[in-house]
Amino acid sequence: MMLTRWQRPELTSWPVFGRLSDLRNEIDRLFETPFAEFSRASSLLGGWMPALDLNEDKDHFTVKCELPGMKKDDINLTLHEGCLTISGERRGEQARPDGEVHRAERFVGRFQRTVLLPAPVAVDKISAQYKDGVLTVTLPKTEEAKPKQIEVKVG
C-alpha cells in the first residue's frame, strides 16, 4: 500500500468550477444578443445549431463555423448593423425503400447563427473560405476600431 500526502486541491482544478464558468459564459452570451437568441431557441425545436467560434487579434475578427457535409451554395452570410449571420440548410439523404434506418443522429434542416461583432469591420474587405467542413470568415477591423499605441512623452 502506498501513502500519498494530502494537498489542498486548487479551486480551478475542480470540474464544477469549469461548468459554472461555462454557464456564466452562456448567460453572458444570452444578454449580448437577446433577439438573436429568440431565433436560436426556436430553431432548437426545429433545426440544428452548428458550433461557432469568434476570435480576435489586433487587425481582424475570425469566425469559424462547423458545417460538415454542406455545399458552398447552401451557405449564406450577411452582415447587418454589426451582426454577422450565417444561415443555410443541410439536406438529408433520401430514404432507402429497400431498408430501414436503425439510427439517425445527424442533424439536417435549416439553421441560423448570429454573432454580434465587438467592433466595426471593413465590409468591403471581408473574406470567407469553406474547407473540410469548416467555414472561416475573416473580418478586418476598421482603422478606428484597431488599438492605437500612444507615446508617453517625458517633459
How would you describe what is shown here?
By secondary structure, the protein is α+β, with helices and mostly antiparallel strands. The chain has a single domain, classed as Immunoglobulin-like. It contains 2 helices and 7 strands. The chain has helices at residues 15-32, 34-46; strands at 52-56, 60-66, 75-80, 83-90, 109-116, 127-131, 134-140. The strands form 2 sheets. Strands 1-2-7-6 form a 4-stranded antiparallel beta sheet, with no helix packed on it. Strands 3-4-5 form a 3-stranded antiparallel beta sheet. A hairpin with a 2-residue loop joins strand 3 and strand 4.
Count of beta strands? 7
Structural class by SSE content: alpha+beta
Span between termini: 70 Å
Main pleated sheet? 4 strands, antiparallel
Low-confidence stretches: 39-45
At CATH level 3, the topology is: Immunoglobulin-like
Strand and helix order: HHEEEEEEE
- Helical residues, percent: 10-25%
The domain tally reads: 1
Strand order of the largest sheet: 1-2-7-6
The overall average pLDDT, rounded, is 80
Q: Categorize the overall geometry.
A: flat
Output the radius of gyration.
22 Å
CATH architecture level-2 label: Sandwich
**DSSP summary: helix tally:** 2
CATH secondary-structure class: Mainly Beta
Q: Bin the strand percentage.
A: 25-35%
Features:
30% strand, Immunoglobulin-like, flat, 155 residues, alpha+beta, 7 strands, 3-stranded antiparallel beta sheet, single chain, 2 helices
